[in-house]
């Protein structure tokens, strides 16, 4: 087993947290710190009350009302992971957020919607944008942007199925306490990842994967299809078996969950 990474050491000694009332993007803020030779430590967190350019997977926009939600990015340096295994980091992050939310809100079952959104009761409560920098054969830097709907209760109509902790429970939540819990879970899962316990990461990811081993509705090339979710491959592609028994792997640009899947 490798020695402790700076991430683990810094987490145990309280990582550096930078709070901004507003910014364009916490991911962009961290990258600016890196590129301006500020040399931020691993586990540095940039948190914002509001983002003007918050983004999710596939350049989707992340909507958030000023001060209502937990919006932050964290710097990781997973040099122990070869670039070919970077999806394992995605799984680790998704598991950490899901576990954090489950610890905070024990009366609900939180799922991972492939590849790394977090859903509860068929609605999206958290999203992630991971941006990696590869140098040679190392995954040298990862900036992980995380948005968790915490206290917002009204969303625009073009956001299809949002939900927040307050909408679930009817009470206000302290975003700092939520961040503490997510960081606690990230420390746990990141140690698993670093120690090479990939079986644990994979098994837990499948355990909490939305629709795993179930028939679900999908949209591919504008057409509806029904397929069974078999899991994900090593590159993070979704493995599906269609009704004719053919198994194929799809990336995020090739297939979408049909909204009907979230009503079942």
CATH architecture of the largest domain: 2-Layer Sandwich
The rounded Rg comes to 18 Å
Question: Domains counted in the coordinates: how many?
Answer: 2
CATH superfamily of the largest domain: Bira Bifunctional Protein, Domain 2
The structure class reads: alpha+beta
Fold-level CATH name of the largest domain = BirA Bifunctional Protein, domain 2
User: Looking at the structure, what is the overall shape?
Assistant: globular
**Top CATH class of the largest domain:** Alpha Beta
Helix fraction, binned, reads 25-40%
- How far apart, in Å, are the first and last alpha carbons? 43 Å
Order of helices and strands: HEHEEHEEEEHHHEEEEE
Proportion of residues in extended strands: 25-35%
- Which strand order do you get reading across the main beta sheet? 1-2-3-7-6-5-4
**Weakly predicted, low-confidence segments:** none
- Total strand segments: 12
Our count of helices gives 6
Question: Largest beta sheet, briefly?
Answer: 7 strands, mixed
The overall pLDDT, averaged over residues, is 89
List keywords for this structure.
alpha+beta, BirA Bifunctional Protein, domain 2, SH3 type barrels, 2 domains, 7-stranded mixed sheet, 6 helices, 12 strands
Please explain how this structure is put together:
It is built from six helices and twelve strands. Helix content is 27%, strand content 28%. The protein folds into two domains: 202 residues, BirA Bifunctional Protein, domain 2; 49 residues, SH3 type barrels, CATH 2.30.30.100. The strands form two sheets. It has a seven-stranded mixed β-sheet, sandwiched between helices. The protein has a five-stranded antiparallel β-sheet with strand order 11-10-9-8-12, with no helix packed on it. The protein has 264 residues and is α+β, with helices and mostly antiparallel strands. The model has no long low-confidence stretch (mean pLDDT 89).
């Amino acid at each position: 087993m490798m020695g402790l990474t700076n991430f683990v050491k810094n987490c145990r000694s309280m990582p550096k947290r930078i709070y901004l009332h507003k910014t364009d993007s916490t991911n962009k803020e961290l990258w600016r710190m890196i590129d301006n030779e500020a040399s931020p430590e691993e586990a540095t967190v940039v948190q914002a009350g509001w983002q003007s350019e918050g983004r999710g997977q596939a350049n989707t926009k992340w909507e958030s009302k000023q001060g209502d939600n937990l919006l932050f990015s964290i710097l990781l340096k997973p040099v122990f992971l070869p670039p070919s295994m970077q999806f394992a980091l995605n799984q680790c992050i998704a598991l950490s957020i899901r576990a954090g939310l489950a610890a905070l809100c024990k009366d609900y079952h939180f799922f991972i919607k492939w590849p790394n959104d977090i859903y509860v009761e068929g609605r999206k409560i958290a999203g992630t944008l991971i941006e990696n920098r590869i140098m040679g054969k190392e995954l040298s830097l990862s900036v992980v942007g995380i948005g968790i709907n915490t206290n917002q209760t009204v969303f625009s109509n073009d956001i299809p199925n949002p939900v927040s902790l307050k909408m679930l429970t009817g009470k206000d939540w302290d975003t700092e306490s939520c961040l503490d819990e997510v960081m606690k879970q990230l420390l746990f899962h990141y140690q698993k990842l670093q120690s090479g316990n990939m079986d644990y990461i994979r098994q837990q990811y499948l355990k909490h994967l939305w629709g795993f081993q179930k028939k679900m509705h999908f949209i591919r090339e504008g057409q509806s299809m029904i397929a069974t979710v078999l899991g994900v491959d090593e590159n993070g592609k979704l493995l599906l078996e269609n009704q004719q028994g053919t198994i194929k792997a799809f990336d995020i640009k090739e297939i979408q969950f049909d909204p009907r899947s979230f009503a079942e």
